[in-house]
Amino acid sequence: MARKLAEPWYHAPPAEEICPLCGRPIPPSQRDLHHWVPKTKGGKEVAALHRICHRQLHALFSELELAQRYSTLDALLTDEAVRTFVRWVRTKPNDFYERSRRSTRKG
């Protein structure tokens, strides 16, 4: 009588994660978790983003702005600075990273 294995005998690579902000695949070395509502404001729901995308959001907006006005992907994409960044970063390789500069408009 042959024994049935509970798990596959082969290693299946993890599914590729896609950044919801820019739509590019996220390499493991560039993966950051973003709280849609910042933890300091009681947020629990997270999404995986490219490190550069995540840092850009925090360079543009204060935690209060993220909590009150930009707590969803759709809300973020209503901002022209976010849309401009997304258009730019989509032209870069998936593992591209450049230090984000703090916005002068950030509260």
From TrEMBL:
<protein>
    <recommendedName>
        <fullName>HNH domain-containing protein</fullName>
    </recommendedName>
</protein>
<dbReference type="InterPro" id="IPR003615">
    <property type="entry name" value="HNH_nuc"/>
</dbReference>
